[in-house]
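Dear support,

Our group has been running a series of protein-ligand predictions, and this particular one with phosphoenolpyruvate is the one our PI (initials K.S.) wants archived with full inputs and outputs. We had some confusion internally about which version of the output was final, so please treat the block below as the authoritative record. The input we submitted was:
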Amino acid sequence: MILHGIGASAGIGIGHAVCLREQNLDYTGVVFSGKEEEKKRLQTAVDTFCFRTQAMADDLQQRIGEKESEILTGQIMMLNDPFMISQMQEAIDGGSVAEAAVDHVCTLYADMFAGMEDELMRQRSADVQDIRTRMLGILLGEEAVDLSTLPAGSVLIAHDLTPSMTVGLKREKIAAILTETGGKTSHSAILARALEVPAVLSIPDVLSAIADGAVVIADGSAGEIIVDPDFCTINAYEEKRKAFLEERAQLSLYRDRKTADADGNPYALYANIGTPAEAEAAQAAGAEGIGLFRTEFLFMDRSTMPSEEEQTAAYLEVSEQMAGKEVIIRTLDIGGDKAVPYLQMGAEDNPFLGYRAIRYCLDHSEIFQIQLRALLRAGAKYRNIKIMLPLITSVEEVRAAKALLAACKKQLADEGIAFDDGMQVGVMIETPAAVMIADWLAREVDFFSIGTNDLTQYVMAVDRGNARVEKLYTAFHPAVLRSIRSVIQAAKRAGIPVGMCGEAAADPGLIPLLLSFGLDEFSVSASSVLQTRKLIAGWHAADAAAVTEKAMNLSTAEETERYLQAVHQKEEQH
Ligand code: PEP
Ligand code: MG
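Confirmed final output from the archive:
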């Protein structure tokens, strides 16, 4: 059987299917089997919960650290609280099944924590909700797959792979990732590319089409899936897999070269990262700096916010790892497809147009200032950190963020804590509003970075994760290309550097345009650094200018993409 989807991360993966089906936690059909029996079921489930959670905490402590594992041991303490257990037993005495007792008492506690003044107490609500889900799963025998213990050669299949799920994955165990939703620039796609795991997204009904354990071949470049392949097909794809890996290895010739076009004009080539650990991969891939550190991943997959100390340590780790090279750290960009349950942002009809990123941060200065203080402190040692603000739509937002930064500097100075007083501040240009006022924004900041993932979404009015409108989501559309050109021109006029950290920076077809528009810095995923350096090296400025002239005179996305891809293919053959 052959299935088709969107090829979101290149490469060939061959392995066995592991399906992540949604848990069904509906217990309405469970029959009450007597007070004693229900209490026994409850106690067994509590014991199982504690045993498994302790094992997860031990593993986390070894792999990540003491602090993170404390979140899990805290859950064990919470569930073992004699008062909480006695409330569940009372519910059973009143005729409830064990599932209903857990559901009722946990929901009561979660609501109580959610209504508290203190931020830390409020965050406990997410913990209790987690206890509730996992206890119900144990009682009903509907348990979620533990992503950290998958066997080697797993082809992970899910309706949607949320970023928080991807954060816990062990890349060496995953042969490929398949989902039913998500586009090329959804965050699961970006993370799959960062992990260098082949991924095919938006395959209709893939969860019902593939059985657990089935042999699957995933071609992340072609967006094709073969289920239960015969022996010959497996062999043919094994060969393809080897060829792909060899080609990737060939690129290593470009690792220690400087980034320049064929005339020797230099460009900066940076990497995008989501965790401090990825900075090592970026460094190993030959990145000349970090052009985007998505700090929201530090806030995800946990139940409380990272403290100032923790954040300072994470930012310093990246700054140190890059050893004097520039590190652009983006402030918290949550919302949209990046949920952080303990921040209780609430559900919205249009999350991508809603309460997210800088909008949330300016409204929650107590959270934002912790991050700004951590950034200022982390920059004290190597002075290579720059701050970047996401989703800017107005000059006021920049001024408000800078005022908070100034307040943080004053606090740190008063407290006698070292910090980088000269830290530069830039903005992401990823909304049409920012494009239109780029000239005014340029007067307020030290640099721009164009976020084409969101810019394409907002210019084209198309949800970047929605497969049904995927055809409209393209950076080759003249409206997106004109926006990019106009931002670069505004930066040049104002004399500030301009980079691009959206996925378009690594698109082979767009490289000649970006070179001739005058982009200063390309920031791409670590896995695309060498390929991008090779592509830049292939262009003479005059040739890139001629291609750009022609491309910018085409009126449709389709013609533009077709033309630029043909140009790229011709280049490749040289
Ligand atoms: C972008 O929008 O282009 C970008 C780089 O940020 P993110 O993908 O995290 O939204
Ligand atoms: Mg963005």
